[in-house]
Automatic annotation (TrEMBL), chain A:
Top-rank lineage group of the source organism: Bacteria
PANTHER family recorded: SLR1174 PROTEIN (PTHR36832:SF1), SLR1174 PROTEIN-RELATED (PTHR36832)
Segments crossing the lipid bilayer: 20-39, 59-80, 114-131, 137-168, 180-206, 226-250
One Pfam family recorded for the sequence: ABC2_membrane_6
Keyword set includes ATP-binding: no
Protein name listed in UniProt: ABC transporter permease
Record keywords: Membrane, Transmembrane, Transmembrane helix
């Protein structure tokens, strides 16, 4: 465990060294928030609620979903690059589990991202976009638990990109595809409750809504009480299923490494 | 000029050969772009599933704006995508020196070295969206209107190119300006929605500083009756020429102050 923590720390140091990307990302998120604000104000021009959500709830939802949406992808792309340039073979010989190492690096980045990006942007959102505070202390607590689970699910699921790289070359395309699917089905763009009912049904059977929609809806009070606990239980199940599934796929995939030779 | 078109053709053939090597990847690329563009359309459709108009604009009017943006962007994306890699693929590893010793314009070489197949996907989506929107807009389409639309789409592509070229050029001073390009590019999402929904500041920036407004909303408004933006929209080709000239001058300036990273 300790070595993985050291890896996470090294990633935090690495992130703090590259400031250009930090400013670029923050700037583009602030711009997205501006668009969100203007767009939803225009949508609500002649009405008070959409899918039972008033304007302030909607803006709170979308802003939080946008911020949480930054966490759903992980280090799948990095793994894919290592698979493609062959350095994965050397990584496999080292005294750690490669997947766990990558997850540790990813969590390191996410920790530094939370402190350097999410918290300041959240403050900006509270001050200038006037987003709501959570409905109660309990819902705040459940939100944090649920958000953490969502982030873990995203981190693990992302490794699929890296595993697919054993068979496919064009990693950029895969990543774009992943981003599109995630943006839509995780609930970053609109709350799942705005989907037509058949699409909500489909989404219920997919792991993606557990990453963003569930935690944010707990925050805004759309999911509350027993339903919130149920949703968190479903997140836990997904997390376990995905961790096991990924490890199985991985042990199958690395056999290809020995076939290729060193 | 003839020499350059011949050269471009040679580069192009080489690119196609590479693409054909990785056919599955080609399909993934096209599919992924279809999906990305699809989600943005789906987003709009979902919103209009719940409301009738946004600030007086209908679903199909918004689709028309989207279509202009997608078509312009896809042209730029297909043929000029390599500018994104100027910093990390050319300047940082010292490859840019290699381009300078050849007797061909370095900007031409960078542009010609890659054709981005994914642009084809977004072009297709753009066409589909355009033809979905048009029958619902009660427009009169003659030869003149079609020509005008084509000019507007090419101008939109030229503005995308100009903005990208301008910020890619910063790489000559800062080695890799990719983060800056990324941040600026994020702004073009603004241009897909009617400008009236934004405050004065945003509108000013998108019209006068980084004229992304002219890549989608203004030229599209030219065709949408009674939108009140016709007199601005008509300036789109002029804006395209001016921004492209500025970007090219800036590129030349950057080229002069280029110092190799060494090897």
């Amino acid at each position: 465990m300790r070595k993985y923590w050291e890896m996470a720390k090294s990633q935090i140091q690495l992130d703090t060294a590259y400031t250009a990307w930090y400013w670029a990302r923050s700037a583009s998120i602030i711009m997205r928030m501006l668009i969100i604000y203007a767009f939803w104000h225009a949508v609500y021009e002649n009405r008070t609620t959409i899918s039972d959500m008033p304007l302030d709830t909607m803006i709170t939802y979308i802003v939080l979903a946008t911020l949480l949406g930054n966490y759903v992808s992980g280090v799948g792309g990095q793994l894919a690059n290592q698979v493609r340039d062959g350095s994965v073979a050397i990584e496999l010989m080292r005294p750690y589990n490669l997947l766990d190492k990558l997850v540790a690096l990813d969590l390191g980045s996410k920790i530094s991202g939370t402190i350097r990006e999410t918290f300041p942007l959240l403050l900006v959102a509270f001050l200038f976009l006037h987003i709501n505070s959570p409905t109660s202390w309990l819902s705040l607590l459940l939100f944090i638990i649920s958000a953490l689970l969502g982030i873990f699910i995203g981190t693990q699921l992302d490794l699929i990109i890296g595993i697919l790289a054993f068979w496919l070359h064009y990693v950029w395309g895969l990543r774009v595809l992943r981003d599109a699917i995630l943006a839509f089905f995780s609930g970053v763009l609109v709350p799942i409750t705005m989907f037509p009912s058949w699409l909500q049904m489909v989404s219920n059977f997919l792991p993606f809504q557990s990453m963003v929609y569930v935690p944010v809806a707990i925050y805004t009070g759309q999911i509350e009480g027993i339903a919130a606990l149920q949703a968190i239980a479903i997140q836990l199940v997904w997390l376990v299923v995905i961790i096991v599934g990924i490890r199985l796929a991985w042990s199958f995939a690395i056999r290809k490494v020995t076939i290729f030779g060193g | 000029m003839r020499r350059y078109s011949k050269l471009y053709w040679q580069y192009f053939k080489a690119r196609i050969k590479v693409m054909m090597e990785y056919r599955v990847d080609f399909l993934i690329g096209v599919m992924s772009v279809l999906f990305v563009q699809g989600t943005s359309i789906l987003f709009i459709a979902l919103v209009f599933h719940n409301v009738d108009t946004i600030h007086g604009w209908t679903f199909y009017q918004l689709l028309f704006i989207f279509a202009v943006a997608m078509l312009g962007r896809s042209l730029e994306h297909t043929f000029f995508d390599n500018l994104w890699t100027l910093g990390w693929q050319y300047i940082r590893p010292g490859n840019f020196d290699r381009l300078l010793v050849r007797p061909v314009n370095p900007l031409f070489q960078i542009i010609a070295e890659r054709v981005q197949q994914d642009g084809v996907g977004s072009f297709l989506v753009g066409i589909i969206v355009l033809f979905t929107a048009i029958p619902h807009l009660e427009l009169h389409w003659g030869i003149a209107e079609v020509m005008l639309l084509i000019v507007m789409i090419i101008s939109s592509a030229a503005i995308f190119l100009a903005v990208n070229l301008f910020f890619a050029t910063l790489s000559f001073w800062m080695v890799d300006s990719l983060p800056v390009m990324y941040a600026v590019q994020g702004m073009n999402d603004f241009a897909r929605y009617p400008m009236q929904i934004y405050g004065k500041g945003v509108r000013f920036v998108l019209t006068w500083i980084i004229p992304y407004g002219f890549t989608a909303f203004y030229p599209a408004a030219l065709f949408l009756d009674g939108s009140g933006f016709r007199s601005i929209g008509i300036w789109t080709p002029v804006v395209a020429i001016v921004t492209l000239s500025i970007a090219l001058l800036f590129w030349k300036r950057g080229l002069r102050s280029f110092v190799s990273t060494g090897n």
